[in-house]
Amino acid sequence: MSRVILFFLLFKVNYVFGNSVFSQSADTLIYHYHAEATPSMFDEILVLVKTDNGTKCMYYGPSIEFDDSPEPFLPGFIMLEATNFIMDEGNISFKLNSTGRGYYSQPVELRFREDEDIISSGYKLWIQAPEFFWREVTFEGIYDNSTISIFNKTLRPKEMKVFYRESLRETMNSYKRDLIDAELEKENSAE
């Protein structure tokens, strides 16, 4: 009986985390900006992964961080690895550069890191208005054990966003591609 229970637990953990490129460990920290009280297409995720060469920062979120448009419209969604990432003595800064990367019509789930994988999983490209978009934006802020507070220095220097540390399970259960409903997603895609 104990082997059956152990097998079930191992299967359950693999099912929950097996589709993610990240694993729940001390080397991976996930921070979630909740745009609203319930999960929203405007939520943003930072994933920090310790490697042999330092710490990498991955960003998952809507195109609004690159958007300088005078009128609101449905966002696109992107996954990017931050560049110039510095996290030292309570301060954090990094750049996000979207040059050559795809924006999608639905939120990109944490299990993806490459555009090819995103497209092969059925994501559709987003209808973009690139003339209103910045290709690179800079973020600065502060951090502690449970939060990262950052602002978009390029476009919104007075708008601080607080990202709260969460488990991989919590984030994967709330940040999904269906945060935008099917009708809006269809309207939001280039197809």
Please provide the count of β strands. Answer: 9
Q: Which range best describes the helical content: under 10%, 10-25%, 25-40%, 40-55%, 55-70% or over 70%?
A: 10-25%
Poorly predicted sequence stretches spanning 5 or more consecutive residues? 1-20
| Strand-pairing-aware structural class | alpha+beta
- Gyration radius, rounded: 17 Å
Order of helices and strands: HEEEEEEHEEEHH
* Average of the residue pLDDT scores: 84
Strand content: 25-35%
Question: How is the topology of this model organized?
Answer:
Blueprint: H1 2-17, E1 28-33, E2 44-51, E3 54-62, E4 77-81, E5 83-88, E6 91-97, H2 115-120, E7 136-143, E8 147-152, E9 156-166, H3 168-174, H4 182-188
Antiparallel strand pairs: 1-2, 1-9, 2-3, 3-4, 5-6, 6-7, 7-8, 8-9
Comma- or semicolon-separated keywords:
nine-stranded antiparallel β-sheet; disordered N terminus; 191 residues; alpha+beta; single chain
